Amino acid sequence: MPTRRTVMKAGGAALLPAAGYGVSAAARAATPAAVELPEPFSVRMPIPRTLTPVARTATTDFYEMTARTTTISVFQGTTTEVYGYNGEFPGPTIRARAGRRVVIAQTNQLTMDTAVHLHGGHVPPASDGFPLDVIAPGATRTYEYPNRQQATTLWYHDHAHHMESEHVYRGLHGFYLIEDPREEALGLPSGAFDLPIMLRDARFAEDGSLHFEPEDFQNRTTILTNGRPQPYFPVAARRYRLRLVNGSNLRSFVLRLGDGEEMTQIATDGGLLGAPVPTREVRISPGERVEVVVDFTGRSGSQVVLADEHAGAVLRFDVGRAVYDASRVPPVLRPLPALATPDVERKMSLGIDPQDFTFKINGKSFDPNRVDTTIRRGTTEVWEVTNSDAFTIPHNFHLHLVQFRILSRNGQPPAPSEAGWKDTVPLGPGETVRLQATFHGPPGRYVYHCHLIDHSSHAMMATMELTD
Ligand code: C2O
Ligand code: CU
Ligand code: CU
What we know:
There is one protein chain. By secondary structure, this protein is mainly beta. It has 3 domains: about 150 residues, Cupredoxins -  blue copper proteins (Immunoglobulin-like, Sandwich); about 130 residues, Cupredoxins -  blue copper proteins (Immunoglobulin-like); about 120 residues, Immunoglobulin-like. It contains 5 helices and 31 strands. Strands 12-11-10-14-19-16-17 form a 7-stranded mixed β-sheet, with no helix packed on it. Strands 1, 2, 3, 5 and 7 form a 5-stranded mixed β-sheet that branches. Strands 13-21-20-15-18 form a 5-stranded mixed β-sheet, with no helix packed on it. A hairpin with a 3-residue loop joins strand 20 and strand 21. The radius of gyration is 22 Å and the shape is globular. It binds CU-O-CU linkage and copper (II) ion (2 copies). CU-O-CU linkage binds next to strand 6 and strand 30.
């Protein structure tokens, strides 16, 4: 297993072939030529496997997972070492029922500490993956998820102190879907027509190894869709539900379908929108989820590409025969409740310190032993969150424990696409978002942070404590 240092060194050598870098001329001569990505759309997009519980009781499903190294085949004729929950990349999918508990025994078979966070989950503090609550190499930690929240697309990923960006980048990420009867009754596309799709970028070295260095966004030019570069996926000529997660460390996606065809957005991070929102463009920053229904009816025999505005094609749908389709997108999905009256207002400012170029929230670097924000349980708060890096640097803002609602963006009402339940919100340079959340939950410590996780790993994170 390469340590962080050997990986950095290998990457450095790839950038500086003439400098030798301590490698003999003979060894350099033996270095294989750069490996090649397969032809676009020659690999089928895998759907991550749904994990089976090891035991079930009347109230609870019990699972076991192990984080370990594994290999994937991205390039022709070679394999790439990555990390994977249960050796899978992305990890296996957990399908939970609202109101039914999930308990996961997480074993760490890697050589460094890990911590597992359920992003978007309403969970007790001991199960939140607080950055210091780590699983030592060889150890097991049990996480309890009450699933007392509505149907939604969540994801789980590493959150170990200072290491989450490298760990998530190397593959410690997977889907966690909560289902409920009220959503099922709507008749949205389901089963084989409900596709979880994780998008992320990556940088591969010439020998095919996955290369990590912080802030390396310009060089992470390969997009992986459920772990494969530019895959295809066979679909029937009918409606599909796409659950899109951006698992990138820094990259935001702007996705369009075919020649700018219409998609119907049905959900944001925390679950269904009040009503469907037709759109031709899906924007999704790191950590966010967007769900859309796409309709391939009448498209038999055609190929429809999902493409990012900068990175190009990320997935091609190959439309097959028409099948009977009883699914629908009803005009009302799940009306949003009226907003409570807030009790407290706070301001959060995310930015780079001009003195020392470190990432800060309200002028402070992350200290897991300091409490930055104390919140009385049950309080409704408005947070005015600003990206104070006015010129170039994007951030976003992610709050653990609760889903929030966006009240305004730069003084304007939120766009319909972000007017639902959210836990992560993009903040372009100089932008200000006002959000409102009611902090129900057990007492204890949680974090909030920028979800461009090369930033959060470098201290753009803070703590909040819920108290009685
Ligand atoms: Cu997905 Cu604290 O993050
Ligand atoms: Cu989270
Ligand atoms: Cu940031």
